[in-house]
Write a structure and sequence with these properties.
five-stranded parallel β-sheet, alpha/beta, 5 strands, single chain
Length: 121
């Protein structure tokens, strides 16, 4: 299953407990920049003693969308996959919208978690 997980905007304490639980349980993270994502995970582990140990990071950004979607199989989403934007709610100003379109087109179950959103703030 695909989860779209919002990340904190400026304050790590804005992460939800549910988001932390999914980060601990996920098999793969799709993100724009693995350096930003790994830094966030390191900070969450430090602040909350979260014990997040993701090993599989897949990069999805505006320059590799076509290659990403042509190389991925629908059964990839049989495991727990998270999509994280660099900050805030996925799909607002990142390739998450293309990922959701791919999920809809291919009948892939997905869920959007509530959380940090610059537009609402």
């Amino acid at each position: 299953m695909l989860y779209l997980l919002p990340t904190p905007i400026g304050n790590l304490s804005d992460i939800s407990l549910r988001a932390l639980e999914l980060l601990k349980a996920c098999d793969t993270i799709i993100c724009e920049d693995s350096r930003v994502c790994k830094h966030l995970i390191q900070a969450l582990n430090s602040k909350f003693n979260a014990d997040i140990k993701v090993k599989d990071f897949r990069i999805l950004h505006s320059h590799n969308e076509d290659k990403f979607f042509s190389s991925i199989e629908v059964n990839f989403f049989d495991k727990t996959v998270l999509y994280l934007s660099d900050a805030g709610m996925p799909c607002v100003s990142d390739p998450g919208a293309a990922l959701v379109s791919f999920a809809i087109k291919n009948n892939i179950a997905y869920e959007v978690l509530p959380g940090a959103n610059a537009a609402l703030t």
